[in-house]
Amino acid sequence: MVLTIKPIQLPLQILPAASCSTHKPAVASLSQFEILETLGRGSKGIVYKVVHNVTRDVRALKTYNNSATYDEVLREIAILESIDCPYITQFHGTVFSDSGAGWMPILMEYMEAGSLQNLVKINGTLSEKMIAEVARRILMGLDYLHNTKHIVHCDIKPANLLVNHNMEVKIADFGVSKLIDLASDERHVFSGTTAYMAPERFDSCAYGDDLDVFAGDIWSLGLTLMEIYSGHQPYFAPDRKPNKTEFDLMFDVCYNDPPTLPEEASPDFQDFIRCCLEKNPGKRWKALQLLSHPFLIKKLDDQDAPIAQDDSNAEPVASKGRKREASMEIRESSKRVKRQDVQFEILETLGRGSKGIVYKVVHNVTRDVRALKTYNNSATYDEVLREITILESIDCPYITQFHGTVFSDSGAGWMPILMEYMEAGSLQNLVKSNGTLSEKMIAEVARRILMGLDYLHNTKHIVHCDIKPANLLVNHNMEVKIADFGVSKLIDLASDESHVFSGTTAYMAPERFDSCAYGDDLDVFAGDIWSLGLTLMEIYIGHQPYFAPHRKPNKTEFDLMFDVCYNDSPALPEEASSDFQDFIRCCLEKNPSKRWKAVQLLSHPFLINKLDDQDAPIAPDKSNAEPVDSKGRKREANIEIRESSKRMKRQDVQV
């Protein structure tokens, strides 16, 4: 099979700018604008101050980086096009770069005084009168969003409230906002900035089925007003760098009393904040109710409030909804992507995930059968590139083999990747179909996965991050291999970065939720061992250890985090052998520095004793995988099993 290397261009369709009014300049290309300065940087892109070369109109230009997904960009543009409100920053359309590369930047109203966050940092906290005017404007914007447009902002905070030269505050940044279908029963919105998220956004099940999904924005507003009054985020101590983990914040929000204002605040202001920070979203005041609260009525009775009353000159843009295309060039990875100039026939669907679909395919000429993994629009460029880069670097018979990338005829979407086809499917499905495994079978599964993890951790410095039965695949020889590197991380050992928060919540180790609890010198690889321990328990008992058997999982993500971090590790039933019990205890040691490593577990008595009998139903390693290097040549891999005084036979696997 010939593999060739070529650069890739993927066409991208995205909604255009809304048509501009006659007094606005026509937006044609990025070259028509001059960048004056950088206004801000976020996780998904950069915002610049720009000026039009002809009209000299000043705008804010929001650009997106490769971590922004197609769906995110499209959703934000669609929401912005639908909005026509003087309390929300105005959308001026989208812009093409001359190269056509990357997501289209968007043009927004330029707010001269910057964000409320920076305003407070520079000029100090605001008076109650000023805060009342801020609250009025934001509540007017939220009432419009919630009741007219059915939009949840999801990220109200001082950094997303911008101020213009007239000191008028407006809502900005709809990057994580949601358009709610009121006819749907979907009432869970888990997005935003953790420190400003409402209790129901972490634990929606605690508040019943008829959850007011819009109420979370009111909670965020309450915290925002407290912050611009007190000068610090209410969940963090003043004059100190935030030191709480995401889990600590979730615990505070869900289980502790809401924060309160200092005693010197007026009773009306205190009560206004209490109405915003009511923990039960069904009892929390709505935007329209808060607009008639005594705090606003009394404070705004004096019209000399320093934050000006609404005199917005925003000029909303009408939406035409025309579609147009932009092309985006994907650069080649450092190790080079292998293109397959071949054609495949799809035989069946093997599985569906949040980021795409996996198909069973056959080559039209050679009749080789492969697994084809496709990506949907929720997968980011960085995620796809990282997975391909990791897969290209791996050469191990205990890991599913990577066979290159494939172009679709249309050239649209991310490149699918070809993987080794594992005929028996996942361990998860195998247990569902055939029942739980014996200890002897589990010992062989454990041996193969530990061999793969030892290779990943010590040779490649890769953390898998998502070891679970669904990601352990079985071939026709009943050999188990590690698959799916979609959330894996390549660790720089010279860096002090030791926090990895990714994976499937029910299989994540305590330190992945609360890394600060285990010191600075955290073993970032230990989380995969914890996941392996839970996986082996599951294929022995028939259900995920944190959920009751024969019941649909009913714990929220927060409940799971609490169980993992604060309750004892799960244990095997009494009928399990003492060696197996101890093996699981070594995997599920809560302190990651005391948790056994892969190479230590390979010499555990459980494996040695069980595998001494070579009739284990899951076959010892006879992998016929043929790893290829970047030029397609076969190469050899000697997988060494470290010997101890009492060990299984050393296997020199040559591929």
Notable characteristics:
single chain, 655 residues, alpha+beta, Phosphorylase Kinase, domain 1, Transferase(Phosphotransferase), domain 1, 4 domains, seven-stranded mixed sheet, five-stranded antiparallel sheet, 29% helix, globular, disordered N terminus, disordered C terminus
Textual characterization of the structure:
- This protein has 655 residues and is α+β, with helices and mostly antiparallel strands.
- It has four domains: 109 residues, Phosphorylase Kinase, domain 1 (2-Layer Sandwich); 186 residues, Transferase(Phosphotransferase) domain 1 (Transferase(Phosphotransferase), domain 1, Orthogonal Bundle), CATH 1.10.510; 91 residues, Phosphorylase Kinase, domain 1 (2-Layer Sandwich); 185 residues, Transferase(Phosphotransferase) domain 1 (Transferase(Phosphotransferase), domain 1, Orthogonal Bundle), CATH 1.10.510.10.
- It is 29% helix and 16% strand.
- It has 18 helices and 24 strands.
- A seven-stranded mixed sheet has the order 1-14-18-19-17-16-15, covered by helices on one side. Strands 3-4-5-7-6 form a five-stranded antiparallel sheet, with helices on one face. Strands 8-10-11 form a three-stranded antiparallel sheet.
- Strand 22 and strand 23 form a beta hairpin.
- Helix 3 runs antiparallel to helix 5 and helix 14 runs antiparallel to helix 16.
- It is globular.
Approximately how much beta-strand content do the residues carry? 15-25%
CATH architecture of the largest domain: Orthogonal Bundle
Mean of the pLDDT scores? 78
Low-confidence blocks of residues: 1-28, 303-342, 615-655
Structural class: alpha+beta
- The CATH class label of the largest domain is Mainly Alpha
Could you say which overall geometry the principal axes of the C-alpha atoms support?
globular
Predict the CATH topology of the largest domain.
Answer: Transferase(Phosphotransferase), domain 1
| Biggest sheet statistics | 7 strands, mixed
Number of strands: 24
Helix content: 25-40%
**Number of self-contained structural domains:** 4
CA-to-CA gap between the ends?
18 Å
Nearest-angstrom radius of gyration?
28 Å
Major beta sheet, strand line-up:
1-14-18-19-17-16-15
